[in-house]
Amino acid sequence: AFVFDKEGKLTHAQRNLRAKDYTSRLLSILAP
Predict the structure, then answer these.
(1) Is 2 left (phi over 0), alpha (psi -120 to 50) or beta?
(2) Shortest CA distance to 14 belongs to which of 27, 5, 23, 26?
(3) What gap in Å lies between CA 8 and CA 4, rounded to an integer?
(4) Which string of DSSP letters, residue by residue, matches 1-32?
(5) Residue 29, strand partner residues
(6) C-alpha distances in angstroms, 4 versus 12, 13, 18, 19, 24?
(7) Which of the two residues, 16 and 9, has the higher pLDDT score?
(8) Which of 7, 13, 14, 20 could disulfide-link 3, Cβ–Cβ 3.0 to 4.6 Å?
(9) Spatial CA neighbour of 11 closest among 26, 19, 24, 29
(10) Is 0.85 surpassed by the pTM of this model?
(11) What's the rounded mean pLDDT across residues 2-30?
C-alpha cells in the first residue's frame, strides 16, 4: 500500500512511516 504523488514518487509521509517502521523493527532486534 504505497502512496504516490502526481510525479509518481512516494510521498514524504509514506517515507516517514516506512522509516519509523524500520527503526522500530531494528530496535526490537537490538533490544528485545
Answers:
(1) beta
(2) 5
(3) 5
(4) ---B-TTSPBPHHHHHHHHHHHHHHHHHHH--
(5) none
(6) 10, 10, 14, 16, 24
(7) 16
(8) 14
(9) 19
(10) no
(11) 75
Nearest to 15 by CA among 5, 30, 26, 28: 5
Contacts of 17 (CB under 8 A, 6+ apart): none
C-alpha distance across the termini of the chain, in Å: 28
Residue keyed to cell 509521509: 13
Cell of 5: 504523488
